Amino acid sequence: MAMNTTLVINAKGGVGKTTITTNLASFFASRNVPTTIADYDPQSSSLNWLSLRSPEASKIHGADLAPRHGTGLSAARRQIPRDTQQLIIDAPAGPSRLLLQDLLVRAQSILIPVAPSTIDIHATANFIKELLLIGKVRFRNIRLAVIANRVRSSRPVYEPLEKFVGSLGISFITRVSDSDIYVDAAETGVGLFEMPTEKAAAEQREFRPIAQWVLGETDAVAAPAAPVAAAEPAYDASNVVQLAAARA
Ligand SMILES: Nc1ncnc2c1ncn2[C@@H]1O[C@H](COP(=O)(O)OP(=O)(O)OP(=O)(O)O)[C@@H](O)[C@H]1O
Ligand SMILES: [Mg+2]
After folding, report:
1. 16 touches ligand 1 (CB under 6 Å)
2. What is the pTM of this model?
3. Ligand 1 pocket check for 17: Cβ under 6 Å
């Protein structure tokens, strides 16, 4: 089977790139799909997460491709097992143009997590414009999705996000809740999909469409109907931008 490469990227720091990367990897690994995380971030957060995993956990290969190693494409290829079916790239915040170009050559799909704050949305809008400018030709065939991460149902922040995505004619948006489950997962080297369903059912439900989108099974990811925490006020689905496919 050919390798499918997903780039998780945003120029902004702390928006959830590593969180999306590791949980996506856990989704595939828990289904016995040969999965590799390529960590391009010198902070090595994804590799640290991998190092926390128990020996019994399903195998996820880690490739250390941080720019400090001066990695080019050929060096990168050597670190990625040939049998990898799902390659997920955890990109650093503020990637150089050179690195961006390198990453765009590799990716079939791009996931852009964005924190639903006005500042982050503006920064992300600029980043996506840069992305579209750089990869004009190559980009044509790359699928692009925006994920609203750390969403709290008490704060309706989708409208600016909807406008921003719509103005660029871009794809999908889904929502990932602000939840301690993601923090627990990050701290223990476990992925959402390796947690007991009774503990992480809501998070698994909201995250699964991201994996399905990566697999090309869906062109549109519907937002989950219910909020993650039962105690939270009812989630207003009408505020959510449903995933809407588009190309650059
Ligand atoms: N949906 C979420 N719910 C709760 N906490 C989250 C969520 N997403 C991310 N976090 C937490 O926010 C912090 C930043 O997330 P993460 O490391 O994934 O961002 P990043 O974009 O990779 O950051 P960096 O730019 O530093 O690489 C982490 O402590 C993470 O556990
Ligand atoms: Mg990170």
Report:
1. yes
2. 0.86
3. yes
CB of 81 shorter than 6 A to ligand 1: no
Q: Residue ranges per domain, the chain?
A: 4-245
What mean pLDDT comes out for the span 136-160? Answer: 72
- Tell me the per-residue pLDDT of 16-66, one tens digit each, with 9 for 90 and over: 999 999 999 999 999 999 999 999 999 999 999 999 999 999 999 999 998
CA of 234 from ligand 2 middle (Å) equals 31
pLDDT tens sequence across 115-129: 878 788 888 888 888
Residue nearest to atom 30 of ligand 1 (CA): 183
Considering only CA atoms, which of 142, 130, 133, 129 is closest in space to residue 4?
Answer: 142
Nearest bound ligand to CA 183?
A: 1
Q: Which CATH architecture has domain 4-245?
A: 3-Layer(aba) Sandwich (3.40)
Closest ligand to Cα 15 = 1
